[in-house]
Predict the structure.
Amino acid sequence: MVIIMTKNILILGATGKLGSALTKEIVKTKDWNVTQFSRTGTEKIVESDNITVLTGDAATADIFEDYDIVYCAISGSELPEVASNLVKYDIKRLLFTGAVGIYNEIIDEVDGKDNVDNNPHQVPNRDAVEIIENSDINYTILRPEYLRDGELDDYQIILKGKEVDWYKTSLPAFVNFIIKIIDEDLYSKESVAFIKHPEE
C-alpha cells in the first residue's frame, strides 16, 4: 500500500506578485496545504480549505520548523535580516528567492549595470543569499529577474558559476518550476538562474 503524504508549504511574502501566483497555482494543481505568510495580508489569496493565513514579520518569526517546505518570496532591504532569522531553525527544505546579478554573472553586453558591483539595490539580495549558502539548511537559491508574462516552456536554467546572457523571467514558467522542485526535490544546495529565452 502506497501512502501519499500531503505537503505542508509555508510561503513567506505570499501576497506579493510571485507569492500570490505560486499560491494560486498550488491550490489549482496540488493537494498541498499552504500557509500564506505576510506582514499585513489577512484575506486568503484564493478561497480554499487548503490555505491558512498568518501575519507577522519573517525577520523575527519562529514558525519555520513546522513545514515540509519553506518558500521565501520576500524582496527588499530587510532580506538579510529574514535570512539571518531563517538559518537559526532546523528547516527541512528552503527555497529562497535571490536575483540574477548577485554573483556579477550578467554579461556586460546584456546589462552589466544590474550586477551587484554596479547596482547597490542588489546588495541585500547578495548578502541574504550568502547567509543561506553558508548555512546547514537544505536550500535551493532561485534567481529570477523582471517577472513578466510568458509561456510555460519559456525558460533557461543556468547554475551558479556560469555567465547569464539574458535575464527576464516568465512568471508562469517560474511558478511551475518551483512546484517541480518541490515535487521532485531538485537542485539541493544549488543556486539556479531562471530566465526567459531571448526574443527572436
About this structure: The radius of gyration is 16 Å. The chain has one domain: 8-195. Residues 8-195 form a domain with the Rossmann fold fold (CATH 3.40.50.720).
